[in-house]
Amino acid sequence: MRKLAVFLFFCIVLSPAVSFADEFAESRLNSGIRNSEISSYLLLQEAQTANEEQAAALLGRASAYSPDLPAVQFGLARARFALSYSGILESIDHVVAGINAYSKNFWWSFSLAGAAYLSLVLSFIVVIFIIVIVRIFGDLPLLAHEIEESRQNIVLLLILFVFSLISPLLFLAGILVLLGLYMPRIDKALVYLFLAFLLTSPFVFRTAAQFLQVSSSGAMKAIVEVNESKGNAYALSALKSSNDPTALFSYGLALKRSGLYDEAMAAYDHLIKIKADAPGYVNLGNVYVGQNRLDDAVRSYLAAVSIRPLASAYYNLSQVSREGLDFEKGNEYFNKALEIDRNAVTRYRAVSGRNPNRIVADEAISSSSLWDLAWKTQGKAATFNLSVLPGWAISAAALLMIFAFFMMNRHAGNKAYRCRRCNGIFCPRCEKHIMWGQMCPQCFRSLIKLEEIEVKERVAQLLSIYEHQTRRRNIMRLLSFIIPGSSQVYAGKILYGFFFMWPFIFFFLFPFTTYFMSPDARGTHWVVNFASLLIAAILLVISNIFTRQRISKGWL
Fold first, then answer.
1. 19, 22, 106, 95: which is closest to 64 by C-alpha?
2. CA-to-CA distance for 318 and 178, rounded, in angstroms?
3. Domain endpoint, select from 73, 104, 135
């Protein structure tokens, strides 16, 4: 008896909350809102401070409010993870569901793509900067040696100074060109690669600017909000005076879902005069349903299927036919809707109700069409304050540098070089020949022509070489702990080190660019960010092991 009394007490206490949650969800569905992301984010925050059982319940409600929100599925994956076979599988299922939700949520997929693009571009520039820093201390003395031998080489530094006034990227490219003169032939490809990047920089920067401009576009936010069933209020104000077909379609949909049927009809009539398409006729028919003008609705739906057969049009015809007690016709239309898109019909039935926004199904702009709309948005040319001149000036300068680098490489045989063993600087002007194995004559004599050098001098030379090689290997071991590929760059295998370094920097920077692309939703891409940092850590470990093996075998 006591247990029954306790049970009834909790039922009385909790029933208002459950009833309130149900009423809230139903009221949102009656307004055509199927993704209440604000409510879901509030529940996500509340779940972070709750115990496991309460967190799972809160996240379940959040999933009901926003079935297309990846953050909810990722939250469920974390809440239901357990060190058991079923717990791991259930967590993986929610992670997969969260990844699939990206395709249904435009802003999540768009911000992720934008973050990947920004990380790709930024990591490439950072890698080139690191390579220049690692190489400049060893190769700059070679340039200084050549300037001492021939004062004409100072012209290169003057040109570099002029480029530095235009853009820091051109200054970086100029230094890379100078260092590239002393690189092996295969590594010079990296110099051409960076110059080609600068040549196409106006397109690269325009694309980056387009990602940022679309993310901050009020009209785009309003269109996405309506078509992904997240809200109507913002679209009613942001799209009111637009004559763009996409904006007009979305504005009419927001009006219809808000019960403003006369204004919605005017919007769709205007849209059909501009562009008569099937989705417009479907939504116009839904406006007629809201006004209880079922015959006009049927004519509008039939006009839609005459242009293009849509599952929503046939489903709505079936609903209207059944309202008119023509069940045979209703079943016929329903079966046609199933033939076209069974999954869509399932979604329509899941939210079906007696409200005008639920008895018939709206047509909305798909996620792929939203992507097309985003790319059609004309982005403004931008250099992100990396140039005092327009973007074409960077391209023109890069083209000149490509030609200059090609011409200078034709005389690369006259450039200074370092002895591989003692690190001494030599050039054809002060040394007429290079010995076997890229050794200077002194190192060559200390190893091969023993009779031409005294024992003390030879021992001193060998000890000097040993100290230099030991110091060189220690530096490479230290660099291998910091950034993958930097040891290879230091050892003179620049292109080899570049392919180690770029993936690591890309995955390392990716979490920061995701935050930059979605500052209002911190941590929303935490699964992808965690995977990115994990890959970066794995690359660091693998590169470290691989590099140390090559150092121990003398290959670096």
1. 22
2. 74
3. 104
Expressed as residue numbers, the domain containing 146 is 108-161+191-209+386-552
Q: What is the largest CA-CA distance in the chain?
A: 114
From CA 289, how far away is CA 41, in angstroms rounded? 34
In the beta sheet, which residues pair with residue 337? none
Indicate whether this model's pTM tops 0.70. Answer: yes
Cα-based angle 240, 242, 244 (whole degrees, multiple of 5) = 140
Query: How confident is the model over 286-305, as pLDDT tens digits?
Result: 999 999 999 999 999 999 99
Q: Which of 344, 376, 408 is the last residue in one of the domains?
A: 376
First to last CA, the chain: 82
Crossing angle of helices 106-149/494-517, nearest 10°?
140
DSSP assignment, residue 291?
A: T
Span 437-492, pLDDT tens digits? 556 666 666 565 555 556 666 666 667 667 767 787 888 888 888 899 999 898 88
- Judge if 469 and 548 occupy the same domain: yes
Backbone φ and ψ for 417, nearest 5 degrees, come out as -145, 165
Indicate whether 283 and 241 sit together in one domain: yes
**Domain co-membership, 477 together with 536:** yes
